[in-house]
Amino acid sequence: MSNATSTQNGHRQGRVLTLWTPEDKAFWQREGEAIARVNLWISVPALFLAFCIWQVWSVVAVNLPAMGFKYSTNQLFWLAAAPALSGATLRIFYSFMIPVFGGRRWTAISTASLLLPAIGIGFAVQDNTTSYPTMLMLALLCGLGGGNFSSSMANISFFFPKERKGSALGVNAGLGNLGVSVVQFLSPLVITAGVFGVLGGDPQVVTKAGQAQTIWAQNAAFIWVPWIAITSVAAWFGMNDIADAKASFADQAAIFRNKHNWVMCVLYLGTFGSFIGFAAGFPLLIKALFPDVNPLTYAWMGPLVGAVTRPFGGWLADKVGGAKVTFWNFVVMALCVLGVLYFLPKGTGGFEFPMGPAEGNFAGFFVMFLLLFCTTGIGNGSTFRMIPVIFLSQKLRGVREDDEAARAEALKEGNTEGAAAIGFAGALGAYGGFFIPKSYGSSITATGGPELALWCFTVFYVLCVVITWWFYSRKNAEMPC
Length: 481
Known about the structure:
By secondary structure, this protein is mainly α. The chain is built from 21 helices and 4 strands. A two-stranded parallel sheet has the order 1-4. Strands 2-3 form a two-stranded antiparallel ribbon.
């Protein structure tokens, strides 16, 4: 039976690909690339919507006080941080779902689950007597969107050959990450009009700058409902499951005995954890430090920069090596945080930078954060290129080129463990989305300003520089990649 016939038969059997050998250049050029691209371009909007729901609270929380919700500043930071906490935890389980359930099935089901928080938030914000525990529960449900990232990235990693994984994962994650920026940019616009008519509910009256305004706060959540439904259907009927990608949890659990899994988790916490944490806390941080600035006018630009640069980070890592890109990226990240500290307003508490304008400088603060978001995106792409290369290289070491059976088994094991490691690193990295906003809130409460939190971030990035150099980028490193 020919390769093409096998693939066609697999399509008739519930869209399961019974033959999938992307490392075979002939197969890849003949049919593999076309199938992989279809799955990638359905995966992208699904992941985009997941990030929109995951980060919708970063916008909703800013508007709650003006709508009459009596929550403290620390409670608002908790609402912005809670989706990251639940999303990161769900990612641990989502990391292993693709080989168990199949990429097509899981993508469709997990995308459809986003309807729960989207609809729930839309109704809850229409009543300013909604209790804080109810709002916190809805914020935690937004973590369903965060969980999707690990399964999405693990799924796409199966479809592409080794030399294309960095670019493919960069595109999937980078365009998916755009959801963070779009939700922060689009939400302030859609809440100004009753786009759903009588189906969207009644408007709310808020006072801003001494003037009464009419808004439809529920639109920030409702606007995503039809797109979630459409994308779920597209995933179910348009994507594929890969038969060879099937594996039990026990098969994937081998990553927990591999030290490089844990090392890469730390590095990804420094890149993606920073991206999602800074994105979640940026609007509230601007509001706390520069009260005369409308945070929603500027906050969306940071996640946009981080999302756009992620594919570039994956592409650059494919060209010059992931370890080299990651090393220098962390160096720049540490310097950018020092730049943020320089431009903060002084007199807010201890741990202030010894130099800089006393009143602070929003323009400098904003530029430093844009550079920081840029480096988080590049680092996201480079670290996710490193992970599958590390696991494939480990499995292929010692396997003879002429031993096709051993090579095929090594490739299968390397891809399976690499995909699981990608998902698991994504899970632990996502905790940055909780710790960074919560660190801001705790630092402000304890010292009057966010400086202590920012100094801790700087120390962590320096640690990541040392780790990357020691394991991956120095001469005679244990696992150059």
